[in-house]
Amino acid sequence: MVAPRPGTKMKIQSYKHNGLLHRVWENSLVLKGTDTIVIGANDRTLVTESDGRTWITREPAICYFHARHWFNIIGMLRDDGIYYYCNISSPFVYDDEALKYIDYDLDVKVYPDMTYNLLDEDEYEEHRRQMNYPEVLDRILHNNMDLLLLWIRQRKGPFSPEFVDQWYERYLTYR
């Protein structure tokens, strides 16, 4: 797989299981790009929804994508601390057009004190039935949710205290 080069801009495109485009983030700066990990950053970035609505992100964010794990993690830098939004998703793929993944609805919101809420379980169940997710996919997604929650509790990877701050400092060197 081709990897994005640090210092370049990339689009991020999320899809649904049925192949339909779900959401597009226009400009994220690549901070690290390998075959297995992409770390990006954005601030006040244009986001386009599948229905054409647009909005602008409100704060700087560090985005973590992995080619082997079925989740991605966004660390948002706010005045009162770092909040995380985690998507249960397919591993990413990257081509010259964009970084791409399938969003499977299950989400976790993590607060600065590392407490968290599970989100959109009803939406997941609805889409699982509508799009006929195979049993093996359902198992993979729930196993990766368990792994993600373990990372949160252990403050591993993007949840380690210095991760977002260090990558945000790197981001600032490009601005």
From TrEMBL:
Task: Identify the InterPro entries for this entry.
Answer: DUF402, FomD-like_sf, Ntdp-like, SA1684
Q: Does the keyword Transit peptide apply?
A: no
Catalytic activity, per the record? a ribonucleoside 5'-triphosphate + H2O = a ribonucleoside 5'-diphosphate + phosphate + H(+); a ribonucleoside 5'-diphosphate + H2O = a ribonucleoside 5'-phosphate + phosphate + H(+)
Residues binding Mg(2+) 2: D105, D107, D120, E123
Which E.C. number(s) belong to this protein? 3.6.1.15, 3.6.1.6
- The highest taxon in the source lineage is Bacteria
The kind of enzyme this is, by top-level EC class, is: hydrolase
Taking every annotated instance into account, which residue ranges of this chain make up the domain DUF402?
A: 19-156
Q: Which UniProt keywords apply?
A: Hydrolase, Magnesium, Metal-binding
Q: Where does Mg(2+) 1 bind?
A: N87, D103, D107
Active site: residue positions = R23
Known cofactor(s): Mg(2+)
Gene3D superfamilies, per the entry = FomD-like (2.40.380.10)
Presence of the UniProt keyword Membrane in the record: no
A Pfam family of this chain: DUF402
Task: Please report which protein family the annotation says this sequence is part of.
Answer: Belongs to the Ntdp family.
Its function, per the record, reads: Has nucleoside phosphatase activity towards nucleoside triphosphates and nucleoside diphosphates.
Q: What is this protein called?
A: Nucleoside triphosphate/diphosphate phosphatase
